[in-house]
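chain below, 327 aa
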Amino acid sequence: MKRNSLFLGLLVAISMVFVACAPAATPTPEPEPTAMPEPTATAAPELSDIVDTAVADGRFTTLAAALEAAGLVETLKGEGPFTVFAPTDDAFAALPEGTVESLLLPENKQQLTDILTYHVVSGKVMAADVSGLTSATTVLGKDVAIKVDMGNVYINDAKVIITDIETSNGVIHVIDAVILPPSDEAAAESNTIVDVAVADGRFTTLVAAVEAAGLVETLSGDGPFTVFAPTDDAFAALPAGTLDSLLLPENKQQLTDILTYHVVSGKVMAADVVTLTSAPTVLGKDITITVKDGKVYLNDTVQVIITDVEASNGVIHVIDAVLLPPQ
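prediction:
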């Protein structure tokens, strides 16, 4: 037993010597992080000038041809900057038949030049700035009217359908119609509230009522006036027989009261209307003004649907119903 114990102890001692003398384990090296490649800077695409941009777009072939015929290519390839309200091919196609062909003739070069320069404004005017204006002076020297209606921007009667096409020498805004400059004779003519209403075509009943009430001369006067103008549809929505009755000579005073309840003294633009809670009419009775969900209402229920139709003696705001004065 004693011998076995000694032998066992000797074995343990030898084992401990081997463990102590064994080489230390070599640690596995940590992998080096893979270096990410530096991002390669991409140069911004170079902008083309107004003419080259229009040609490359493909929707302005008629405009490009007109610029060549008028000798304006070099001008609109110059430094500028320019803002161009560019009619599409469809806009030119909507002109009366033969108009474009006539304008492209050499003998009509000056007329074509006048039309094209009426679409150009000096300087780079982006959409955010255009919508804050009421007019702009063109290179032709005649102003275009600018209005915002139901979220859309109009240049005269042409709707802006695409904005802010940037070029190296300005910006292009696309419009859906060709805008024609007013002739000197037309500019000299009166453009009163009555004239505007007659020319518009949506106010035939209102014009007839103004005539029956004997108010044409008044609303063609110096003013200025603000007219909340009901459309033909608004008058048609009155109870059956109401309009016919109002147009009778014996009801002239009642008709006059209704019409003058739609008129406010002074030129009150839409931006000012929305800051009011009421306005005194020419009849002497107030209309209330409220703004709900971004829309303007008169007397709570009558909605203003088009604003800032300017006239030489005031402004028209179009409404969707006839206002009836309180008794």
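The radius of gyration is 38 Å. Residues 103 and 111 are 7 Å apart (CA to CA).
thats it, cya
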